[in-house]
Design a protein that fits this description.
This protein is mainly beta. The chain contains 3 helices and 9 strands.
């Protein structure tokens, strides 16, 4: 396994909330929780960076409406689990506007150590990345991969490229540790720890 860089050339702005590590992207696309055959992994820590925006020009606001109106359920004497929502409660519910910052950039880049060709092949069918893909954000024009210099953990300035537990961070520097997830599944509370991490996109 060798260091490589993978790049998603974009047609439209992209929306990220938090980190999008290359291992998480591959797991989502391949629908499996282990991609150590593609990306180097040591004791649960994948050598795969978080997404880095390339040629970022700025951001634009993106807003979406979500309907929060509850369904009114009529009481049913045969089921005591049914409930009725009163008129005042129904009036309080309604539409909610969710706002996002969509990043305008030419590409999204990841650094990793592993099998470059396998990673590229796995991502060829991915046409959109990030949030609000169904609305056209994060459209990928093409995927590219090349040999690289960075291992997916530490950047050129000895900065973290992904969340790394503080007790495993050896590069030094003046970073401030934060509480965040560092290994998959990233939603699991037990996978959170005091970590050194890049600024979230």
């Amino acid at each position: 396994m060798t260091p490589f860089t993978i790049r998603a050339q974009l047609r439209t702005p992209v929306i990220f909330n938090g980190y999008m590590t290359l291992d998480a992207l591959l797991m989502a696309e391949l629908r499996r929780g282990d991609v150590s055959d593609i990306i180097k992994c040591v004791d649960g820590l994948y050598f795969a960076s978080a997404a880095v925006l390339d040629d970022e020009y700025g951001s634009i606001k993106a807003s979406f409406v979500a309907s929060m109106r509850p369904d009114v359920v009529a009481p049913n004497s045969s089921k005591n689990t049914d409930i009725s929502i009163g008129d005042s409660r129904a009036r309080e519910a309604g539409n909610v506007i969710n706002g996002y910052d969509a990043k305008v950039c030419s590409a999204v880049v990841w650094y990793a150590t592993g099998d470059k060709d396998a990673a590229l092949n796995a991502l060829q069918s991915v046409r959109f990345i990030g949030k609000r893909r169904a609305a056209g954000y994060g459209e990928v024009v093409r995927w590219e991969a090349e040999d690289g210099d960075l291992d997916g953990l530490v950047g050129y300035l000895n900065d973290p490229l992904r969340p790394i537990p503080a007790d495993r961070w050896t590069a030094g520097g003046n970073q401030i540790a934060i509480d965040t997830a560092w290994k998959p599944p990233y939603w699991a509370i037990e996978n959170r720890a005091k970590c050194y991490a890049p600024e979230a996109a």
